[in-house]
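Hi V.,

Quick status before I head out on leave. The structure for the redesign project is tokenized and pasted below; the design run finished overnight.
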């Protein structure tokens, strides 16, 4: 499973909203939507923002 799909599943499983995570991450919601849906390649810095600021988790969770 690709990282964007793992993030998408994590957000859904934890009852979060994409807009909320995007805002907390400091990423434009439209850009966040493109990342999550696989229309834009996820960069390492975006992954760090999403995980550390938006979800408050360690990015390594998605590499297991």
């Amino acid at each position: 499973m690709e990282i964007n799909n793992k993030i998408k599943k994590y957000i859904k499983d934890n009852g979060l909203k994409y807009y909320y995570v995007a805002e907390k991450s400091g990423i434009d919601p439209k850009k966040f939507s493109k990342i999550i849906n696989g229309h834009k390649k996820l960069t390492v810095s975006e992954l760090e923002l999403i995980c550390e600021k938006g979800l408050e988790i360690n990015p390594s969770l998605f590499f297991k």
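Above is the designed sequence. The chain has a mean pLDDT of 95.

G. will cover questions while I'm gone.

Best,
W.
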